[in-house]
Design goal:
Oligomer: heterodimer
Order of helices and strands of chain A: EEEHEEHEHHHEHEEEHH
Number of strands of chain B: 24
Shape of chain B: globular
Radius of gyration of chain B: 22 Å
Largest interface: A-B, 29 and 24 residues
Helix content of chain A: 25-40%
Structural class of chain A: alpha/beta
Helix content of chain B: 25-40%
Chain lengths: 258, 471
């Protein structure tokens, strides 16, 4: 069984409006998956629902991480068990430095892994790790002492998202990159992070609207997402077909008619 | 789980609520309940005070009795003045060494971590238990430089001329009802004199502890910072949790002479049965700086607006205020600055947080007198409301009698956003941890002004108050 398994997953808004309508998907460690779909297809909803956003309700199906169903778990528990969501627009937390936030997040995950007893990362180890990760991912060191995402440029926010991904060591990282507004620099940062970190300990699921990012991340698997469902899956060639033909070719006939 | 459930119960986890019942029976001297000229006379007599101070006390009591209770701020009508003990002397003598204190009292200070803190990062400590300062110590090198740091009663005996010269001049005994009450029954508090040019690098700290039920604590503090001198004074306060109320009503008067600087930091963490009605005022002369850093986490009702009168050219004043109100708490905090000289500058920064039905607010006065041209002031008050039951108020009074001034005022009210919480939780933090992190960040502009040890303590208190509330 793959590390992340979605089985017949249905997600609705709090008012009951169905958005995701039966998704089956397997993402293994050391795998790069891309979900591509047109605007309004429900891709971002899928990403948020996987991470446990309270505004999205799983009405049917399962989210299995290493065989364990996480549908009832809160976002914190999902993170502790190895899921990570890189936000498209990460929120600012004024007054909390990147360093102090990272330390708290690492310690929260360590605590969960230690069965609920505090197991804080030693100061020296933390410092070594954070500096090494920043250098490797080309995150300017001055960002460490700034308030999290507060006044950051788009590129800085991306860098810090990827830094978090590196330090929290998730098993499955979901990257929400649906927007077309990202500049090439930001795309490169995200792609660089994914390429750097996907390996025997991590798999990634990149959610995107445009093929652009896939020029930098070469996905092993591409899924076309339309109307809340995966309508076609394939290898990297699928992304190129999409780029050439557009999404129309993948929209089921009855939905075009409607 | 809703946000309301997540962050409920600020102060459910009050760590200093322990009482010391054995000690209460062993007090050296205890006045009866209630307030009268007899009680005032008994206090003065017991302390063997000079005639002028007795007169000062009796006249103050007349002022107190004559003034009506304030009808603004919080509900002070609940205070039962007849049920309060106005004077309790726990020990016969003041100790110069912690070991000389009775074991029960020492145990209280140990639990509060004061002797430990003194060793690590303080230049001097005063510890007041009920009405009297039971322990007092200043580093020898500061003593040699002429620094005076002693309790107010000893100061009245040993430096009567200085006390007589200043007491009641910054805050007149009839300034307000509670200042009058303090002037009538005051006991304890700190007296500090810093000679010209002496800079005290480590903080001096006073710690105020109420132990007895229905206790009234009325310390009186006077700080004189001479020319080019500097001092940072820190006070902390806690009390046990009792079912009936106690009263803390202090008066703090500060004089900062030309080019001097005084910083006064308060971390008030009284239990939720304490009325905390305090008058604090400083005057700053030419090129002097006065800073109030005022953290209010505890008490049932706090009414406190540290004030600065900028009396000399280019004097600078700052008030940094945090008010944190949980269930059953009302924090009416803020600051006042009066620009009475040209080119004076001031900044008031207020952060209030209310939760679980608590009420926190900012009440401020900014006044620029005629002739104080070139005055500059900035007032920023931000409120964070954590649920729908809680309340925040802002009362920013401004009076300007001068045209050539530069004034700025900003106010924001915000709630913890679901998206912010989700973002932090998606990194593994629990809802309580995520909320605490957002609150810590919100007050960071003030905690970063605290010495490290106090900043850590402040964040720990915030954490404690946000924890114990989940599930």
């Amino acid at each position: 069984m793959a590390y992340l398994e979605l089985k017949n997953l249905h997600v609705a808004l709090e008012d009951g409006t169905p958005i995701v309508k039966g998704v089956d998907l397997s993402v293994g460690l050391n795998e790069k998956h891309a979900i591509m779909g047109p605007n309004g297809s429900g891709k971002s909803t899928l990403a948020y629902a996987l991470m446990g956003h309270p505004a999205y309700v799983v009405t049917e199906g399962e989210i299995l991480l290493d065989g364990e169903d996480l549908v009832e778990a809160g976002a914190d528990e999902r993170a502790q068990k190895g899921l990570f969501l890189a936000f498209q627009y990460p929120h600012a937390i004024p007054g909390v430095t990147v360093t102090s936030f990272l330390r708290s997040a690492i310690n929260a995950i360590r605590k969960a892994k230690a069965g609920g007893t505090d197991d804080p990362i030693p100061v020296k180890e933390f410092r070594t790790e954070i500096l090494a990760a920043m250098d490797r991912l080309k995150v300017p060191r001055e960002l460490a002492s700034r308030y999290l995402n507060d006044g950051f440029s788009g590129g800085e926010k991306k860098r810090v998202e990827i830094l978090q991904m590196a330090l929290l060591r998730p098993k499955i990282a979901i990257l929400d990159e649906t927007d077309s507004g990202l500049d090439i620099d930001a795309l490169r940062i995200v792609a660089g992070g994914v390429n750097e970190l996907v390996g025997p300990e991590m798999g990634a699921l990149v959610i995107t609207h445009y093929q652009r990012i896939l020029n930098y991340v070469s996905p092993d698997h591409v899924h076309v997402f339309v109307g809340g469902r995966i309508v076609e899956s394939g290898g990297p060639e699928l992304a190129h077909r999409l780029e050439a033909e557009g999404y129309d070719a993948f929209i089921p006939k009855e939905e075009v008619a409607a | 789980m809703s946000e309301t459930e997540i962050v409920k119960g600020i102060r459910d986890e009050y760590a200093y609520g322990f009482a010391n019942p054995d000690e209460a029976e062993n007090y050296f001297f205890k006045s009866g309940r209630g307030l009268s000229h007899e009680v005032v006379e008994a206090i003065a007599e017991h302390k063997q005070e000079p005639e002028w101070m007795r007169t000062f006390r009796h006249r103050s009591l007349d002022y107190f009795l004559a003034r009506p209770l304030p009808e603004w701020g919080g509900n002070v009508a609940e205070i039962d003045f007849e049920n309060i003990y106005y004077y309790i002397k726990p020990t016969e003598k003041q100790a110069q060494s912690w070991e000389d204190l009775p074991a029960d009292i020492l145990d209280t200070w140990d639990k509060l971590g004061i002797p430990e803190a003194e060793k690590k990062y303080l230049a001097g400590v005063g510890a007041q238990y009920e009405s009297e300062v039971v322990y007092h110590k200043l580093q020898a090198d500061l003593e040699a430089k002429g620094v005076l740091f002693l309790d107010m009663d000893s100061a009245l005996r040993e430096h009567e001329d200085i006390v007589k010269q200043y007491i009641g001049t910054i805050i007149p005994q009839n300034d307000n009802k509670f200042a009058a009450l303090n002037s009538a029954v005051w006991s304890g508090g700190s007296f500090i004199y810093v000679p010209p040019g002496v800079r005290i690098e480590l903080p001096l700290q006073a710690y105020f502890r109420i132990n007895a039920e229905n206790m009234g604590q009325f310390e009186r503090t006077l700080i004189i910072v001479d020319e080019d001198a500097y001092v940072h004074y820190v006070e902390g306060c806690t009390a046990p949790i009792y079912s009936s109320d106690s009263l803390h009503s202090a008066v703090v008067e500060i004089v900062v002479k030309p080019r001097g600087r005084c910083r006064y930091t308060t971390i008030q963490n009284w239990s939720n049965n304490v009325f905390n009605l305090v008058t604090k005022r400083a005057v700053a002369y030419e090129d002097a700086t006065m800073e109030w850093v005022d953290g209010n986490l505890g008490s049932k009702l706090t009414m406190k607006y540290p004030a600065i009168w900028l009396m000399g050219d280019r004097a600078h004043g700052e008030v940094l205020s945090i008010a944190f109100a949980g269930s059953g708490q009302h924090q009416d905090a803020g600051g006042k600055v009066v620009h009475a000289a040209p080119n004076t500058t001031s900044v008031i920064t207020s952060k209030s947080i209310s939760k679980n039905g608590g009420r926190a607010g900012y009440r401020g006065l900014l006044e620029v007198a005629k002739g104080a041209h070139g005055a500059k002031s900035k007032v920023v008050c931000d409120a964070l409301i954590l649920d729908d039951e809680s309340r925040s108020d802002t009362y920013p009074y401004i009076r300007v009698d001068e045209n050539d001034v530069d004034l700025g005022h900003e106010a924001t009210v915000s709630k913890i956003g679901e998206e912010q919480l989700f973002y932090l939780m998606s990194r593994g933090l629990s809802e309580a941890e995520a909320s605490a992190m957002i609150v810590s960040g919100f007050v960071e502009p003030i905690t970063k002004e605290l010495p490290l040890e106090y900043a850590v303590e402040m964040n720990r208190l915030i954490q404690l108050q946000m924890e114990g509330s989940v599930g």
